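User: I've been trying to design a sequence by hand for this structure and keep getting stuck. Would you show me what you'd pick, starting by listing the structure so we're on the same page?

Assistant: Good idea, let's start from the same input. This is the structure you sent:
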């Protein structure tokens, strides 16, 4: 009688490969959890209600899209995947917090992490404004009550209260 080869379980192998993938690519691809606090918000611009539009080109190389907005001085600069002008700006000025015009995420260079703009109160208004500039409507969260931001798109007909 011939011996048949024992089937080998490869569950262990798969596990370790995934772990390695996580270590190498975890912060670049895939979802990384955003921080809900940041110690570098003190240098945010005092007026984040007036910001450049999301299609503003990079101030330095004129790269046309997917740029970052410095939330300290409102300069628009390109990403690390283009000419790294936002990264250089951080290194030269110490301005840590920037908002991505490509997906409206907020990044803190000092924390080296994304920040949750829905949770951090100082970031929420500028995130909403950027969202409106990009998509033409308010973000899906419900609590927007600033009347100065309304654009006559009243949907409810009864406004007596
Ligand atoms: Zn930070
Ligand atoms: Zn650039
Ligand atoms: Zn800046």
């Amino acid at each position: 009688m011939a011996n048949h080869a024992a089937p080998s379980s490869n569950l262990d192998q798969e596990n370790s490969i995934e772990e390695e993938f996580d270590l190498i690519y975890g912060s670049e691809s895939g979802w990384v959890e955003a921080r809900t606090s940041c110690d570098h918000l003190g240098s945010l611009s005092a007026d984040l209600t007036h910001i450049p539009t999301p299609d503003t080109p990079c101030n330095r190389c004129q790269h046309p899209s997917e740029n970052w907005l410095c939330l300290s001085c409102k300069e628009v600069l390109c990403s690390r995947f283009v000419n790294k002008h936002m990264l250089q700006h951080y290194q030269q000025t110490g301005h840590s917090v920037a908002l991505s015009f490509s997906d409206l995420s907020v990044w803190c260079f000092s924390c080296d992490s994304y920040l949750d703009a829905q949770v951090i109160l100082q970031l929420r208004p500028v995130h909403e404004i950027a969202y409106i500039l990009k998509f033409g409507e308010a973000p899906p969260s419900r609590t927007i009550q600033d009347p100065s931001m309304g654009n006559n798109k009243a949907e409810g007909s009864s406004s007596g209260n």
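That's my pick for every position. To get oriented when you compare it with your attempt: Residues 70, 72-73, 75, 89, 93, 95 surround zinc ion (ligand 3) (CB under 6 Å). The helical segments are 11-25, 85-93, 124-135.
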